[in-house]
What does this fold into?
Amino acid sequence: MEESTKVKKINRTPIIIAVLFVFAIGAMYVWKSVSERKLRSEYDMQKQEMVIAATSILSSRTEKLLNAVMQPFVWSVRTELLKDNYDQIDSYLTQFVKQDEFNSVMLITPDMEIKVSTDKKLEGAIMKDENIKAAMNTNSIVITKANPDDQEMIISAPVMGFNSKLGTIVVFYKPHAMVLEPATDSKPIIN
It folds into this structure.
């Protein structure tokens, strides 16, 4: 009888070892899956934070660049406006919208008349957009979003005379859609 008890103990040992081995492999798999999920979640959060930071920096730099571009443009329009040379102003506005991301440009007088516009249907009309009217009340360049969900910006730049405001240049600017992707040798970062 003692031999049969020993045999049973010997036969159980490999089964116990196999069960422990399977349990250890399962535990390692679960541990690996949990830590991989945690790393992926951290990676996704960091990626999202970097995209938000990059978008914010790009937006800020775009606004600074637009502000810098508008100053000499306003000076050129001012020079021609003082000479009442609206044909040359029209030429300036037309050249401006030939740039890829500029949709429309107009010169609005202090009494809200659209004097010159790249959209000829608007010339002679009275500006009724309240956001543009509000931006026209300042003596500095104002950059606003046309609508919070859209990337289109409205740039309002006052044209100042010697003693008074001669008008306001309003530019509708819509940058290309930005897609941030991991950098590789064959793909651009910004599409």
